[in-house]
Amino acid sequence: MCQLLGLNCNHPTDVTFSFSGFAMRGGITDQHQDGWGIAFFEGTEEDRGLRHFVDHLPASSSPVAELIRRYPIKSRHVIAHIRKATQGPVALENCHPFVRELWGRYWVFAHNGNLVDYAPHLHGNFRPVGDTDSERAFCWLMQELAKSHASMPSLNELSITLQELLPQVVQHGTFNCLLSNGQALWAHASTSLYFVHRQHPFQHATLADQDLSIDFAQLAQVDDRVAVVVTAPLTTDEAWTPFAPGELRLFVDGSQRPIERVGF
Q1: CB contact at 8 A, 250 and 186
Q2: Arch. (CATH architecture) of 3-257
Q3: How far apart are alpha carbons 135 and 142 in whole angstroms?
Q4: Cα distance between residue 80 and residue 78, in whole Å
Q5: Cα distances (angstroms) measured from residue 257 to each of 6, 73, 220, 248
Q6: How far apart, in Å, are the Cα atoms of 142 and each of 136, 138, 139?
């Protein structure tokens, strides 16, 4: 299956270290050779701007991926994906992450898994361009969010709605996914996701997929906070926490935020 990488930070952060190790899984340390992509929010303080790169070539050998590894990306919200095709041919339009607009913001989505006999009824403005179950699921989620809320609700309200919608997708198969709108990162685990918080006191980290290490204490500010979510741990010397099956987590400003259901 595919591999996911998500970062959520309280300040714009250089993602080159994490992406460098992650990209090696696209054909060198793992067999995910059917395309890759990355999207990261930039721009104003509200993070409405988006840079989006996809390529049907393996991440380990893609010239575009090499550009990203050398480009000093600094962002508070990042989603990256390397593909092992299960549905849909190896083609640019089938590469994650996918992007749509809702409530005047870009939304970015990536999926790891396989949905069997999944053909949701899409009747609104959200239609897939490619042939993947992943993009169909994303379009359906966007459609149902738009039906549930007339305008942008609170992050907690959005999280509650997602908790209600996601089981309807999961019944068709494996659905590990990442979703961001430049305000937060939502991560849902069907089988395998891990996360780590990088914050003061910062420590040394060594990539699992590449002979590269970094001392975050030499680079980070005391108040920096970074949450990293990934399919399998990126480093060998950090304490990665596994998601429970069926768990949805919300990350805001580099920290996990509880999803609270308000009683009436």
Answers
A1: yes
A2: 4-Layer Sandwich (3.60)
A3: 11
A4: 7
A5: 16, 25, 22, 11
A6: 10, 6, 5
Query: Which of 28, 63, 58, 35 has its CA nearest to residue 132?
Result: 35
pLDDT, tens digit, for every residue of 217-250?
777 788 899 999 999 998 998 899 999 999 999 9
| H or E segment and range at residue 227 | strand 225-230
* pLDDT value, residue 203: 81
Other Cβ atoms less than 10 A from the Cβ of 160: the count is: 18
Q: How far is CA 173 from the centre of its chain?
A: 19
Interatomic CA distance for residues 128 and 142, integer angstroms: 11
Active-site hit among 2, 9, 95, 177: 2
The three-state secondary structure class of 254 is coil
SS (H, E, C) 103-140: CCEEEEEEEECCECCCCCCCCCCCCCCCCCHHHHHHHH
166 forms bridges with which residues in the sheet? Answer: none
Q: What pLDDT does residue 27 have?
A: 65
Q: Which residue, chain included where needed, has tokens 């768990």?
A: 247
Closest by Cα among 230, 220, 223, 235 to 251: 230
How do residues 89-114 score in pLDDT, each as one tens digit? 888 999 999 999 999 999 999 999 99
Which helix (DSSP H) or strand (DSSP E) does residue 145 occupy? helix 133-148
Write out residues in the chain with pLDDT < 70, as ranges: 1, 26-27, 29-32, 44-45, 262-264
Are 59 and 53 contacting, i.e. CB atoms less than 8 angstroms apart?
no
Active site residue 2: yes
